[in-house]
């Protein structure tokens, strides 16, 4: 069993807490992405789990073993954890084979078959073993770093923003290779990232960190489609934010009369914040939908963002298929085709 169970972890540097009574469970063989803005405490949490940093309070349990808290502090090398840093952390004076075998027992370091197995696992050819890190691309270096982390078959793998320094295309291919390798080993994985799309596509569970706490923990679909508040909705992706007014049969807003989802529908009254994502709007006609003039088009290849000024002056953004964009100045209808969220106004 390699479930990671974090309870009540509190860490402070000086008088100001960085982590405030953090709770998190990562089930065996699953991947959790800890998502949040830079400097929010994500790496601090990884360091506590790995054993590089002792918390002020709380416990960390891996499987059935308490490795931190309750008077215990198991050293990092005895926690059964593989750690991959943002820069990979490869030793420049060793070749790839030497880097991968570095953590193995001395008697096993010359086992070329084990190195070859690990290179194959992360999608690199066996001949890569004789190359130096400086001869590899950034994506290849990160795969080698993962292979080194997996060399001792750890129960838990911690990934500290391992793709952030890579360009867009390389980041996607490296992420896919890493995900496949982790699935093959069935390791329990925690990824720290500030990239929303990375978290949503990579993980089984996403934990959003804000102000030293988790504001929401759930599946990627849950946290994207049902964010707990306006701030989180905006953090997770593009939104159209409108002011609405509650009436008996729904909410009136510049998009017409809409039915909105809310975690606390009974608390909605008067003016509310209405949120809809650009992909949940369409430039097609429907009964009672507003019309407006196309002001701007931002083309992104597969899709485009169309900014429309509605007749009442409200500006909304609609995501459309890239090859089906209207012309600037064209009059278009705007209809709601997806979920609408509503939050009480602060």
Automatic annotation (TrEMBL):
Gene3D superfamilies (alphabetical): P-loop containing nucleotide triphosphate hydrolases
InterPro entries, alphabetized: AAA+_ATPase (IPR003593), ABC_SmlMolc_Importer (IPR050093), ABC_transporter-like_ATP-bd (IPR003439), ABC_transporter-like_CS (IPR017871), ABC_transpr_FbpC (IPR015853), Mo/tungstate-bd_C_term_dom (IPR008995), P-loop_NTPase (IPR027417), Transp-assoc_OB_typ2 (IPR013611)
CDD domains the record matches: ABC_Carb_Solutes_like
Superkingdom in the source lineage: Bacteria
One GO term describing the cellular component: ATP-binding cassette (ABC) transporter complex
A GO molecular function held by the record: ATP hydrolysis activity
Signal peptide start and end residues: none
EC number: 7.6.2.9
Keywords: ATP-binding, Cell membrane, Ion transport, Iron, Iron transport, Membrane, Nucleotide-binding, Transport
Any one Pfam family match given in the protein's UniProt record, by short name: ABC_tran
Domain ABC transporter: 4-236
Protein name (record): ABC-type quaternary amine transporter
């Amino acid at each position: 069993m390699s479930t990671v169970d974090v309870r009540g972890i509190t860490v402070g540097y000086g008088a100001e807490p960085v982590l405030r009574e953090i709770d998190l469970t990562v089930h065996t063989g699953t991947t959790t992405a800890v998502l949040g803005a830079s400097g929010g405490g994500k790496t601090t949490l990884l360091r506590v789990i790995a054993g590089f940093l002792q918390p002020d309070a709380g416990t960390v349990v891996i499987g059935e073993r308490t490795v931190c808290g309750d008077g215990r502090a198991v050293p990092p090398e005895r926690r059964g954890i593989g750690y991959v840093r943002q820069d990979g952390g490869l030793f420049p004076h060793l070749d790839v084979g030497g880097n991968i075998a570095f953590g193995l027992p001395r008697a096993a370091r010359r086992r070329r078959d084990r190195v070859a197995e690990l290179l194959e696992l992360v999608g690199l050819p066996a001949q890569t073993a004789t190359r130096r890190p400086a001869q590899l691309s950034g994506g290849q270096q990160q795969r080698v770093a993962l292979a080194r982390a997996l060399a001792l078959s750890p129960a838990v793998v911690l990934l500290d923003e391992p793709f952030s320094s890579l360009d867009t295309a390389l980041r996607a291919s490296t992420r896919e290779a890493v995900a496949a390798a982790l699935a093959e080993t069935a390791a329990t994985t925690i990824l720290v990232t500030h990239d929303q799309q990375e978290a949503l596509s990579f993980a089984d569970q996403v934990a959003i960190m804000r102000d030293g706490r988790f504001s929401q923990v759930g599946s990627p679909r849950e946290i994207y489609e049902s964010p707990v508040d306006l701030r989180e909705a905006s953090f997770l992706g593009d939104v159209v934010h409108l002011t609405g007014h509650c009436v008996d049969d729904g909410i009136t807003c510049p998009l017409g009369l809409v039915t909105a989802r809310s975690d606390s529908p009974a608390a909605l009254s008067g003016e509310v914040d209405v949120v809809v994502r650009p992909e949940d709007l369409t430039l097609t006609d429907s009964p009672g939908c507003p019309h407006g003039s196309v002001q701007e088009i931002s083309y992104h290849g597969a899709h485009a963002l169309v900014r429309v000024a509605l007749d009442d002056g409200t500006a909304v953004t609609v995501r459309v298929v890239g090859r089906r964009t209207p012309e600037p100045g064209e009059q278009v209808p705007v209809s709601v085709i997806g979920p609408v969220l509503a939050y009480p106004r602060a």
